[in-house]
Write a structure and sequence with these properties.
This protein has helices at about 10-15, 45-50, 60-75, 85-95, 110-125, 165-175, 185-190, 225-235, 245-255, 255-275, 295-300, 315-325, 375-390, and strands at about 80, 100-105, 125-130, 145-155, 180, 200-205, 220, 280-285, 305-310, 340-345, 365. By secondary structure, the chain is an alpha/beta fold. It folds into two domains: about 10-255, Type I PLP-dependent aspartate aminotransferase-like (Major domain) (Aspartate Aminotransferase, domain 2); about 255-390, Aspartate Aminotransferase, domain 1. The strands form two sheets. It has a seven-stranded mixed β-sheet, sandwiched between helices. It is globular, with a radius of gyration of 22 Å. The N and C termini lie far apart (about 60 Å). About 45% of the residues are buried. It catalyses: L,L-cystathionine + H2O = L-homocysteine + pyruvate + NH4(+). One of its GO terms (molecular function) is cysteine-S-conjugate beta-lyase activity.
Length: about 400
């Protein structure tokens, strides 16, 4: 939408990408366009189908503004929006597979991605093999003549394994396979997938892009070579997010860098504090030097977000409930990426197949929001006191 790309680094681009105030009577933000029918001025225009907008499902100025901004920030060729992160994942995968094909998916992938592969893809005759997320270039041994894509997610969902994306991409491309990456944790600010060989990037924009826990939105950004298949599948599936959700994505985008800086700073401070707690067996945060994948994270990533995990020493269910049920600032709920702090117990034992999750005590995933860090520590400190009493 912008007449020219604005110069500068991420902070500047986040403020200006996708905007063209002159086109909208000087208003800073692109307005919300609600609509289905778009009128054509003449029969020839209708038959040529060459005007900028043709039907609401196929895009509006609001949608175009966010797509253009994200494609620029991601460094990709084109971006498409979907109603959720999961719909973005499903669309991206379906763009490259047919019955009889094979795909490789990280064993630490977002669990709904796994369910999609194990149900819909299986029913359509597509075979999925789950691989150890730290396999790196060794993934070459799992690639077959029928392997169409390798799905990556780094760090891994819940357990935060860092993948060697360049090595995986090199092996996949040598075998003629596409590489898709879920980059929700890092966002375009903290990891640049196209610089590391990825062909398609997906995000649950519901998280950090929207940033306020008030909208559902998915994003698919492609390299030029992958743009055609994804655009075709997206069109056929009839995907279009709601106009208010798109607008909230645009609004959230403008403050994403300052929010992520705060998320990063607070999460690292809290992770270091938790590492000293006697109740905590292990802190699982890629940006900490004691994380197994820290060297890869340091090599490839530009920062870390507010999401990490801890493993507690063995305690009873009653004690764990006493701890989390009484928390004031850490809410229990799904999703993350908003301004609020969240805590969620998890146990991936039942659905990992290529790797084994080995902890003796309960595990907790934390999203550190924008609250004062001392208040967050005090909330958890009181929770640990309840745990000990129980």
């Amino acid at each position: 939408m912008s007449k020219t790309k604005k110069p500068g680094k991420h902070a500047t681009r986040l403020s200006h990408a996708g905007r063209d105030p002159a086109r909208f009577h000087g208003f800073v933000n692109t307005p919300i366009y609600r609509g289905s029918t778009v009128l054509y001025p003449t029969l020839d225009t209708l038959l040529a189908d060459d005007q900028e907008y043709s039907y609401g499902r196929l895009g509006t100025p609001t949608v175009r503004a966010l797509q253009d901004a994200l494609a620029e920030l991601e460094g990709g060729h084109a971006t498409l929006l979907t109603p959720s992160g999961l719909s973005a994942i499903a669309t991206a995968i379906q763009s490259f597979v047919s019955s009889g094909d094979h795909i490789l998916v990280s064993d630490s992938v977002y669990r709904p991605t796994r369910r999609f592969c194990d149900t819909v893809l299986k029913r359509l005759g597509v075979t999925t093999t789950y691989y150890d997320p730290v396999i790196g270039g060794g993934i070459a041994e799992l690639l077959t003549e029928r392997t169409q894509l390798v799905f990556t997610e780094s760090p891994g969902s819940q357990t935060f394994e860092v993948q060697d994306i360049p090595a995986i991409a090199e092996a996949a491309h040598a075998a003629g396979a596409e590489v898709i990456m879920d980059n929700t944790w890092a966002t375009p600010l903290f990891f640049r997938p196209f610089d590391h060989g990825v062909d398609v990037v997906v995000h649950a924009a519901t998280k950090y892009i929207v940033g306020h826990a008030d909208a559902m939105l998915g994003v698919i950004t492609t390299a030029e070579s992958a743009a055609g298949p994804v655009a075709k599948t997206h069109d056929i599936l009839g995907l279009c997010p709601g106009p208010e959700d798109v607008y909230l994505g645009l609004r959230g985008l403008r403050t994403m860098q300052v929010r992520l800086q705060r998320h990063q700073e607070s999460a690292l401070a809290l992770a270091d504090w938790l590492a000293q707690r006697p109740e905590v067996e292990r802190v699982i945060h890629p940006a900490r030097p004691d994380h197994p994948g820290h060297a890869l994270w340091k090599r490839d990533f530009l920062g870390s977000s507010g999401l990490f995990a801890i493993a507690l020493k063995p305690v009873s269910h009653k004690a764990l409930a006493a701890m989390v049920d009484g928390l004031d600032l850490f809410g229990m709920g799904y999703s993350w990426g908003g301004y609020e702090s969240l805590i969620l117990p998890f146990d991936p034992t039942a659905y990992r197949t290529a790797t084994t999750w080995q902890v003796e005590g309960p595990a907790l995933r934390l999203h550190v929001g924008l609250e004062d860090i001392e208040d967050l520590k005090a909330d958890l400190d009181a929770g640990f006191a309840r745990l000990a009493s129980a």
